[in-house]
TrEMBL record:
The gene is ung_2. Pfam families: UDG. This is Uracil-DNA glycosylase. SMART domains: UDG, UreE_C. GO terms for biological process: DNA repair. It comes from the Bacteria.
Length: 211
């Protein structure tokens, strides 16, 4: 995907005041049917400049394979393009007693990079946008409810876009499918059945739309 230099530079400047590092625009087939929107890069992503690598990336690959897709078939991006971090205590030798840990992005950080996601969606016009986790789902739809209530559901809706210091709505409607973030299974293995039930719903939807 070709990026206007002005837009990228503005996003980098807007995120400067916050505790973040790295910058990952996205990767994949921007002419494909499916866009995947995550939360933010983690440590590995921030270092290597690629979305969804490491453990969460391996889990995402498994889920894509289950859907009959691969990374080459989709475009992967995120709500925030820099890794939000916080300092935590550690006993690791040579660390000085502190290390950076991932954290959930705040609303100001999400807004700082809002125009990037808007641009990607406008350029790609995906048939389906998969929102991985509550942060991505809320950014796209404005829905602050529990993602578990809508997991795997194909929701036809206008989506949020940056507008006048806040968010407005697109004129076009998009199909947004909320799924649990791939890393969620590491913290709560009990949701595995729910995850694959939601993937079954998404798989059925993609197959119906392809017919």
């Amino acid at each position: 995907m070709d990026w206007p230099e002005r837009l990228v530079n503005e996003a980098k400047k807007r995120i400067e005041p916050y505790d973040v590092e790295g910058f990952v625009l996205g990767k994949g087939d921007h002419r494909g049917r499916v866009m995947i929107v995550g939360e933010a890069p983690g440590e590995n992503e921030a270092v290597k400049g690629e979305p969804f690598i490491g453990r969460a990336g391996d889990e995402l690959d498994k889920q894509l394979d289950y859907l009959g897709l691969s990374r080459q078939d989709v475009y992967i991006t995120s709500v925030v393009r820099s890794r939000p971090y916080k300092w935590v205590n550690t006993n690791k030798k040579g660390s000085g007693g502190k290390r950076k840990a991932n954290r959930k992005p705040n609303q100001k950080e999400i807004y700082a990079h809002a125009k990037l996601l808007d641009y990607q969606i406008e350029q790609m016009k995906p048939e389906v946008i998969i929102a991985l986790g509550g942060v991505a789902y809320e950014r796209l739809t404005g829905d602050k409810g529990k993602i578990s209530d809508v997991i795997g559901e194909a929701i036809r809706t206008r989506i949020q876009r940056e507008e006048g210091g806040g968010y407005g709505e697109t004129e076009e409607e998009y199909t947004v499918v909320p799924l649990y973030h791939p890393a969620a299974i590491f913290y709560n293995p009990k949701i595995k059945e729910d995850i694959y039930h939601s993937l079954d719903r998404l798989k059925d939807y993609l197959e119906r739309e392809e017919e």
